[in-house]
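user: Please supply your own:

assistant:
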Amino acid sequence: FKTNAVRCTWFSCRREFFSGLIGALKGHLNAWLHGLVHCDTSDSNTWFWVPIADKDHAVPNWYIDEGVPKFYGETVESEWFPMRPGMIGDFGLALDSLDDSEGASEVKKRWTTTGTFPYSSVDEEHPPNICHDLESFIFLAFMLRTNVTGPYHQLQDW
């Protein structure tokens, strides 16, 4: 597994952040369609893809030259400027929703919360499901939008 990525707090603008978050949501949906409930949405488990593992691609220098969006000399399509695919990782707490065995049912009953604080679901009465993960994504977007003041992991000093 050699996919280059940076944490979701490492973005150049709001458009890049939200497009990456939507990409991660698509990955979440794909996992759910294959029977997995992620159960651990957080800023360290939501990543943005980087094409090459070097500083020029991890910290992209998006700019506009004569009205044309460019990235280090390469012309990019306008509708793709500046966007990065998002992805989710760390399926260590994931549950297999397709497993109906007695052991899996017991694990699902004992499971009380979903995710990493402060992104965890507030619903502790029901076993984890896709709605809990979506709730965690809402908390993630809110917390990062509130606590990150600028591009490239500039955190708000409260």
The beta strands are 5-7, 36-37, 46-49, 62-65, 68-71, 74-75, 86-88, 95-96, 148-150, 154-155. The first strand starts at residue 5 and ends at 7. The mean pLDDT is 76.
